[in-house]
Amino acid sequence: MDTPRKMDTPRKILEELRQVFTKIAGKDQSIDRSEFKKALGLKDEYFAERMFSLFDNDRTGIIDSEEFLKTVEELVFTTEEEKLKFAYQLHDINGDGAIEKDEVSHLIVASLNENNLNFPPEQVTALVDILFLEADTDKSGEISFEEFKGLIEKHPDLLEAMAVSPVSWLKPRKPDDAIPVVPKKRSRKSYIKHYIQNNWIKIAFLSLYLIANLLLFFWAADRYADQGANLYVQIARGCGAALNFNGALILIPMLRHFMTWLRKTSINNYLPIDEGIEFHKLVGQFMFGFAIAHTIAHFLNYTTLPVPFAQSLFETKAGLSGFLLLLVFAIMWVTAQAPIRKGGKFALFYTAHMLYVVWFVLALVHGPVFWQWVLVPVLGFAIEQVIRARNTKDPAYVVNASLLPSKVLGLEIARPQSFHYQPGDYVFVKCPSLSKYEWHPFTISSAPEMQDVLSVHIRSAGSWTGKLYQLFREQHEQWIRSGSSKYEPGVLVHLDGPYGTPSTHIFESKYAILIGAGIGVTPFASILKSMLYRSQHGSSGMRLQKVHFFWLNREQKAFEWFVELLSRIEAQDTNDLFDINLYLTGAQQKSDMKSSTLFVAMDLMHAQTQVDLITGLKSRTQTGRPDWDKIFRDIAQQHAPDKVDVYFCGPPGLSLQLRHLCHKYGFGYRKENF
Predict the structure, then answer these.
(1) Euclidean distance between CA atoms 65 and 501, whole angstroms
(2) Packing angle between helix 652-665 and helix 188-226, nearest 10 degrees?
(3) Count of alpha carbons within 13 Å of 284, Cβ hemisphere only?
(4) Do 217 and 242 meet the contact criterion of CB atoms below 8 Å apart?
(5) Any bridge partners for residue 275, and if so which?
(6) Which domain of life is it from (predicted)?
(7) pLDDT given at position 292
(8) Domain boundaries, given as residue ranges, for the chain
(9) CA 91 remoteness from chain centre
(10) Which of 374, 470, 537, 559 makes a 20 to 30 Å CA pair with 319?
(11) With contact defined as beta carbons under 8 Å apart, do 118 and 556 qualify?
């Protein structure tokens, strides 16, 4: 829950909490234990019970309006000392005026539950012991209030958390608290300047694209106007000219081998190749819009002709082929929308998109000059398919499979001798035992320096990936039942690739920030491995001087995906290249009173052992969401006046926030898109 904003006055807080009571209490205007626990958003009974007993003064098991407001007012207007006493009471379960070890243990276990953390009993005991070693100054085996206060004063974060009024737990969240906050712009002029600096290639390219569409539209419309055609025909022909142009363009971003080759040339510096897939989608939207306008204009023109409408539509080559074109296009367009493509119906999207062959055949029949526009792109696409067929005909075999937390599947595939890739590249994978036709893209998580195998990490998030996970889970269970000493899945797969990504540019950067959210860390696994190898072997192509790596996960177990890699980096990074930063976003902030004692104990343990209990790494895992504005500001100051490049793979909401901050601080920004 959020803490009271500095601008909030006590009276304003009281008024907000009156509204909170009314909302929680409902028609009977009273709150029971279950309602109270739900209102505080607590998972553990301990905190809910302790807070409830504080409000339930008459011990009836019900909090009425008078009790609620009286207690709230006392807490809002109380002194810092009284707030600390309240925090002390949370720890002192039996109310005897002293905190024993079992009470601290109970609190820590409750805090672990609140933060979805899971520590073994021996670690909980170690945390309690180290906390008592720090706080129990008179060695009495108990912590008095004065000792408790002394412990808090040694830790500013803990003091701030304890000094915050506990009624902040009850304050209603603002609607924007649940989403990333877009930072305020320093000025419109500054924002525009940084945006243009970071996106001038894309801006120039899109400008040329829009201008070309407008010129073609008006050129065709004007030509038919000179021939005496009515307005409907002029519009239809203008849209037709734009459709010819876009029909040629839409294939180009799908020439993946060609685009990967372009990345390695100087042309890459003048084309927005990283936005290829987004450009493909944009062209598709423009084409569908032009197709609708083209059809409506022809329909309106048909109404002006002396022949019946149906005859013009279904008994002419242009009319019938145009009708079928729009029908096929509508199916492809609808099934390509995000709710279907990303909503567990990828197979429907994939199957419908194969209608592009039908669309091109119909377009060649419908448009007399369409072939002139698409001849080169279609030939390029045909060559691409030949290369793809040649590269994918040889099977590859899964040599190892790992069932990782959060339904992530780690696969090691025997690397074909002809398969050469760069860090961050991705590959399409087909598993014939699941589908003979479906190909799905996954980032390669192994480093190119690994000669024998390549690895991919796949999160079960849809129909095909779910079936793949289930396939290997069943094989794993069968292997366990067989009692075999060696796990040999031997599942046949086909590989199509490799293909380049925006991360390919990372070795051109001097200072880089890598940000992965959840399974979005996969592209950086390969990159980090390769960076470590190049750093250790003094590679001449290694321009990087500092890499700030950030990995955000909601669950503790998710860090297990690549914790071995991070541990190796910590042990072998003799050149101080890496700055590792891990965030457990599903946990509460360190300044939350319900968790602050746990986190102080963990800090003490880390200071003594140099081991983070959440991951087992040396790097301390932070809790809550990162303060990106502060992080970027600090890194900008650290490396000024040099430019810093940000590479991100994760959800769109966070991407928007990071993109704004990159514009603010003049950082380069690249996001994985495929």
Answers:
(1) 59
(2) 110
(3) 22
(4) yes
(5) none
(6) Bacteria
(7) 93
(8) 10-178, 188-390, 394-499, 502-586+624-671
(9) 37
(10) 374
(11) yes
Count H helices and E strands in the chain, helices first.
25, 14
pLDDT score for 10: 61
Helix (H, G, I), strand (E, B) or coil at 419: coil
Is residue 173 within 8 A of residue 2, CB to CB? The reply is: yes
Let me know if the fold of 394-499 is the same as that of 502-586+624-671.
no
Neighbours of 144 (CB within 10 A): 17
Task: Report the amino acid identity of residue 142.
Answer: E
Report in angstroms the alpha-carbon separations of 244 from 212, 283, 323: 12, 12, 17
- How many Å apart are CA 44 and CA 440, to the nearest integer? 41
CATH of 10-178, one of 3.30.499.10, 1.10.940.10, 1.10.238.10, 3.30.390.50: 1.10.238.10
Q: What φ, ψ does residue 431 adopt, rounded to 5°?
A: -115, 100
DSSP string, 21-87: HHHHHGGGTEE-HHHHHHHHT--SHHHHHHHHHHH-TT-SS-EEHHHHHHHHHHHHS--HHHHHHHH
Q: Counting beta carbons within 10 angstroms of the beta carbon of residue 407, is it exposed (0 to 12), middle (13 to 18) or buried (19 or more)? A: middle
Residues of the chain with pLDDT under 70: 1-11, 13-14, 39-44, 46-47, 74-78, 155-191, 193-195, 197-198, 342-344, 483-489, 538-541, 588-594, 673-674
* Angle of the 370-392 helix axis to the 256-263 helix axis, nearest 10: 80
Asked if 597 and 131 touch (Cβ cutoff 8 Å), the reply is yes
Nearest residue to 648 (alpha-carbon basis) of 628, 633, 634: 628
Task: Look at the alpha carbons of 500, 502, 508, 514 in this order and tell me if their dihedral is positive or negative.
Answer: negative
What pLDDT score was predicted for residue 189? 67
Q: If we measure between CA atoms, which residue out of 218, 220, 284 comes closest to residue 246?
A: 284
The span from the CA of 30 to the CA of 62, in Å, is 6
What is the distance between the alpha carbons of residues 125 and 116, in angstroms, rounded to a whole number? 18
Distance CA 554, CA 486 (A): 33
Q: Name the strand (E) or helix (H) holding 581.
A: strand 578-584
CATH code for the structural domain at 394-499: 2.40.30.10
Give yes or no for a contact between 443 and 522, defined as CB atoms under 8 angstroms apart. Answer: yes
Residue at 460: amino acid letter: S
Q: How far apart are CA 336 and CA 216, in angstroms?
A: 27
* Topology (CATH) of 502-586+624-671: Rossmann fold (3.40.50)
Residue 175: is the preceding peptide bond cis (ω within 30°)?
no
- Can you give the pTM of this predicted structure? 0.72
Positive or negative: CA dihedral 487, 490, 493, 499:
positive
Token digits of residue 427: 């590959």
Tokens of 407: 């339904």
Across-strand partners of 411?
Answer: 401, 456
- Going by DSSP bridges, is the β-strand pair 30-31/644-649 parallel, antiparallel, or unpaired? unpaired
Query: Is the sign of the CA dihedral 276, 280, 283, 285 positive or negative?
Result: negative
Query: Under DSSP, is residue 640 helix (H, G, I), strand (E, B) or coil?
Result: coil
Contacts of 225 (CB under 8 A, 6+ apart): 234
Per residue, the 3-state secondary structure of 165-189, as one string, reads CHHHHHCCCCHHHHCCCCCCCCCHH
**Structural tokens at position 442:** 């996954």
Amino acid at 155: H
Instruction: Assess contact for 500 and 441: CB atoms under 8 A.
Output: no
The pLDDT value given to residue 515: 92
Q: Which residues contact 496 (CB under 8 A, 6 or more apart)?
A: 388, 391, 392, 427, 428, 429, 430, 439
User: Tokens representing 578?
Assistant: 């890496």
| 401 phi, psi to nearest 5 deg | -135, 135
Give the per-residue pLDDT at 220.
92
